[in-house]
Structures are given as C-alpha cells and as structure tokens.
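go over this chain:
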Amino acid sequence: MGNLRAMNWHDAMSIDMIRVAVDPERGADPTVTFPGLDRLPRVGEVAISQALGQAMSADPALARAIPGSRFASIDQDALVSSEQELAVIGVTQQALRRGDEAR
C-alpha cells in the first residue's frame, strides 16, 4: 500500500515523496521492493536519492522536513535523472489512510 505526493520546497525544488506502509501483522513481503532499493522502508525509515541527500545536507530545515531516519540511498539507475529529488518513506497504514506524516 502506498501513495505519491510532491512537496514544493520554497519554490526552489519539487521533491517526490512516496509513502509506503507494510501490514505489521503480516510483515514485509520480501518479493515486494522499490526500484533502486533492496527492501521497502519500515515505519520511521526513509530512503532518499543522492540529489535529495545533498540538498538536505545543505539545508538543515529541509532535512527536518523529510520524516524518518535514513536507512538507504536509492540507486541512481532507478531514478528519472541524477538530479531527481526522491524520498521513499515508511509510515503506518493509519497514517497512509489519513494522508499525514505520522509514524
């Protein structure tokens, strides 16, 4: 289960944020992955593209705006371009249904 939304950061960049939720009772299906990742993020984890990681390093406020602790970098070959700013965020199923960032 997941959804996609774009975050416009100070009219300077558009960040693609894909939120995914895994059923805690069944756990993660190891056959379900995201391109460029070995596994889906768990609740509270985030995987980011290299471009987003660089932007977050340069802007602490942006780093705080992206929820979750970083567990992986998304493989460049899976991105539209090397400049794509992408975050894959693990959230609870309830947060995904509500559309919020709560973990």
